[in-house]
Structure formats: structure tokens, C-alpha cells
Design a protein that fits this description.
The chain is mainly alpha-helical. It has helices at residues 4-19, 28-41, 48-62, 66-81, 84-94, 96-114, 120-149, 154-198, 200-207, 238-242, 245-266, 268-274, 279-304, 313-329, 333-362, 367-384, 386-396, 400-416. The relative contact order is 0.15.
Length: 438
């Protein structure tokens, strides 16, 4: 009697040859990892680190206040993330390749639309398109495709893919600053639209694939299991995941990281100016932050393969709390460097936890739907976080009070992590059950 894997291989050998020839010495999992990493990299036009460089030129050109722009950013982000659960379910049903192709085309068009905005209202629409395509779309599917292809080594693989985001945060702010200097902020957005269309769009259309079992391939790029004792892979539906406390812990950590991190990055140059840091030095700090983020992402990814993600949440929250408190308690170059180190460590560790944590706890069967739901909470944080910062700047002329409040929330979330338990194991009764035909 053939095993499930042998039956799948026998039934799909022709399709396998069309996708990944047997003669190739490179397992297709490595190609997926590279493509997913590049997908994360190309989300930067819609990430806060990229948008923050446009923020001052846009407000000056349109003649609107930072508060109005922050409200447009918040409402646009919320509107853009609303389709995330639908996108997640679409990935589960149609696979990541078609979904990513449509999303990448949408991101290119969103960049073009941003070049045409003329008012606060059209800016809101532009932010909705940009954030929805980049964060609720391309980021979601790029993380998802890596999780489909890596199981036992998911932590380090997801962390490696997240390095694309860190690399983008190092490269894109300077690239965007240069484009704005040459062509103005509208020309810069047109250039970004062309870059997306010429790079990530053909990559996802050509390389993204559904889970390896469909092609008779092994997970984890064919490498031997990282653990001596293989564990059953859990299989939670979205409804079952929503009833677990660990889901809400991961969501809370993601919400705070996105809320506080987005507010800090969006107001980065304003906060640094308040701390007495020159614009050129503040721009350099973004590169330092991204470098620390890359190291923290890899280090945390290594730990996720050995420890439960919930046990790593307190470290991420401690770093985020420090990043919140430092600008409120001091100024000068030393404080700004410690600030960059702290927020980089917070971002990097939380990215690795979020990228692999949901798949580790809930499995791959309904991962798109589960991650789509979690993205709503995470990006809601990115939408709402800048609002109290903008209000604080307008009403008090500074950010001290809101920063101290953010620090307290981070410490509370880190303490909560110690009380959360691993969800009850809901494993597939048979690895073949979902594969059998009537």
C-alpha cells in the first residue's frame, strides 16, 4: 500500500517536473525563501519607514497639518487592512501565486495614485491603497508562502525572510530621499511604482508556489528535521485559534509594536529634532535601527525553533518599552543611539515571533485565514498609534506623556505573557485525511 507522500508523488510527477525539474540540484524551498524575502523587501514603499520620508514634503506641498496627515494615514491604514481576512482565505483557497501577482500589481498602481493626490481626502485614499497592498497584501502573502514550505525550521526561515524588511528599511529611506531630491515627491512615487512593476511583480508571478506536498517535495528545503523527535503538526481553524489566549497575546504584542513603532518612525525626524539631532544624523539612525533589526530578527528566529514564541514576547516588549521611555527621559546623541538600538531590537524580535508563531501554534491548514485575522489587529495598531502622538505634539509641543504611557503598556503586555499557556493540541488525525478523494 502506498503511503500518502508516495501517492502524491505518483499523481503529480508531471506537474512537479513543470515547476521544479528533478535535474535541479537546488530544492525549490530555497527559491521560495528567496522570493519571500524579496517580497518582504518590496513592501517598503507602503511601510512606515518608507512613508515617513514623504511625510514632510507631502504636508508642505498640500498645505495640511501633521495632525490632518496623521488622521489620513490612520483612517487610510484601517480602510486598507479591512480586506486582510478575505485575502487570507483567498490564499488558502487559490494559493499564494495568483494572490501575490494581483497584490503586486495593486501596489504598483497604488504608488502611481499617490503621485496624483491633491488634498487630504485623496491622500487618505492613497494611503488606503498603499498600505492595503503593501501590508495587508504583499507582506501577508510573502510571510505565508515561507510558512507553507518550512515547518521544523520555520523560526529561522521566517526570520531570514523577514530580513528583507530590515534590508528595505536600510535601503529605501535613502533611496526615497534621493528620488525626492531629484524628481520631487510625486516623481519619487512614480519611480517606486515602476520599480515595483519591474521587480516584485514578475518574481511572485514566476516563483511563488503552494505547499511543497502538492509537488511531492518535502518541507524545510529537504533538510533533516531540526529536532530529534518529530512532532505532530497542529491544525486549528480560525474560529478555534480565536478561542486561545496565545492568539490574543501574539495579537496584543503585534498591536503594540505596530502602534508604537509606527508612531515613532512616522514622527522620527520630529522626535529627533526635539532631542537636538540633526536631519542627516536622524537619517543615519534609521539605517542603524534597520541593522539592529536584522540581527534581532535572525537571533529570535533561531530561538523560535527551540522555545515557544510566547516565552520570547517579554523581551520584545521590554525593548519596545525602552524605546518609548528613552526619548521622554533624555536627549542627545547617546540617548538617540540607545533609542535606535532598542526599537531595532523590538521590531526584529517581534517580526520573528509573529512570522513563525501563528504557524507554530496553529498549523498550516487554515493559516491564511488565521493570519488575515491577526493582520487586522496588527495594522489597526499602525493606524491608531500615530494619533495620540500627533495630538500630544499639537497640544503640548512634545511627546513625553504619550511615550511614558506607551512604556507602561509594553511592560503590562510582557508581564501578561508569563500567564499565557500553550493551546491544547489539535492535530490532524491522519496526514492523509485531507488528501483522500471520495
Amino acid at each position: 500500500m502506498l503511503t500518502c507522500r508516495r501517492r502524491r508523488r505518483a499523481g503529480r510527477v508531471d506537474h512537479l517536473r513543470a515547476v521544479s525539474p528533478r535535474s535541479s540540484a537546488l530544492h525549490y524551498g530555497w527559491i521560495i525563501l528567496g522570493a519571500g524575502t524579496f517580497g518582504s523587501f518590496m513592501t517598503l514603499p507602503g511601510q512606515t519607514a518608507g512613508v515617513s520620508v514623504f511625510f514632510d514634503p507631502i504636508t508642505a506641498d498640500l498645505g495640511i497639518s501633521r495632525t490632518s496627515a496623521s488622521i489620513a494615514y490612520a483612517v487610510g491604514t484601517l480602510a486598507g487592512i479591512l480586506p486582510a481576512p478575505v485575502i487570507g482565505r483567498w490564499i488558502d483557497r487559490r494559493g499564494p501565486r495568483l494572490t501575490a501577482t494581483i497584490i503586486a500589481a495593486g501596489l504598483a498602481l497604488a504608488c502611481v495614485f499617490m503621485a496624483t493626490v491633491q488634498s487630504a481626502m485623496t491622500l487618505l485614499v492613497g494611503f488606503a491603497l498603499l498600505r492595503g497592498a503593501a501590508i495587508g497584501g504583499l507582506s501577508l502573502v510573502s510571510q505565508h508562502v515561507v510558512n507553507l514550505w518550512f515547518v521544523r525550521r520555520r523560526g529561522i526561515a521566517a526570520a531570514a525572510a523577514s530580513l528583507g524588511l530590515a534590508a528595505g528599511a536600510m535601503i529605501f529611506p535613502k533611496l526615497i530621499d534621493g528620488l525626492i531630491s531629484l524628481y520631487g515627491w510625486r516623481g519619487a512615487y512614480l519611480a517606486l511604482g515602476g520599480l515595483v512593476a519591474l521587480t516584485i511583480l514578475p518574481v511572485v508571478a514566476a516563483l511563488f508556489r503552494d505547499r511543497p506536498e502538492k509537488f511531492g517535495l518535502m518541507t524545510d528545503a529537504g533538510l533533516p528535521p531540526a529536532a530529534e523527535e518529530p512532532r505532530d503538526e497542529p491544525s486549528f481553524t480560525r474560529e478555534q485559534a480565536l478561542r486561545t489566549s496565545v492568539f490574543w497575546l501574539l495579537c496584543a504584542a503585534g498591536f503594540l509594536t505596530n502602534a508604537i513603532g509606527t508612531a515613532l518612525l512616522l514622527n522620527h525626524f520630529s522626535i529627533m529634532q526635539t532631542a537636538g539631532i540633526a536631519y542627516s544624523d536622524a537619517l543615519l539612525l534609521l539605517s542603524l535601527l534597520a541593522g539592529v533589526q536584522a540581527v534581532a530578527t535572525l537571533g529570535t528566529g533561531f530561538l523560535v525553533d527551540r522555545y515557544e514564541p510566547r516565552h520570547l514576547v517579554p523581551f520584545a516588549m521590554l525593548m519596545l518599552g525602552m524605546a518609548s521611555a528613552l526619548p521622554a527621559l533624555g536627549d542627545g546623541i547617546a540617548v538617540s543611539w540607545l533609542y535606535a538600538l532598542s526599537i531595532g531590537a523590538a521590531y526584529g524580535s517581534q517580526q520573528a515571533i509573529s512570522a513563525a508563531g501563528y504557524a507554530q501554534y496553529f498549523g498550516r491548514d487554515h493559516l491564511g485565514a488565521i493570519r488575515g485575522a491577526s493582520f487586522v489587529f496588527g495594522i489597526a495598531g499602525a493606524a491608531l498609534g500615530p494619533l495620540p502622538f500627533a495630538a500630544s505634539a499639537d497640544w503640548t509641543g512634545g511627546y513625553a506623556a504619550v511615550l511614558i504611557g506607551c512604556c507602561a503598556l509594553c511592560l503590562a503586555c510582557g508581564a501578561w505573557a508569563f500567564t499565557v499557556k500553550r493551546p491544547s493540541s489539535l492535530v490532524k488525525m491522519s496526514n492523509c485525511k485531507s488528501e483522500q478523494t471520495p
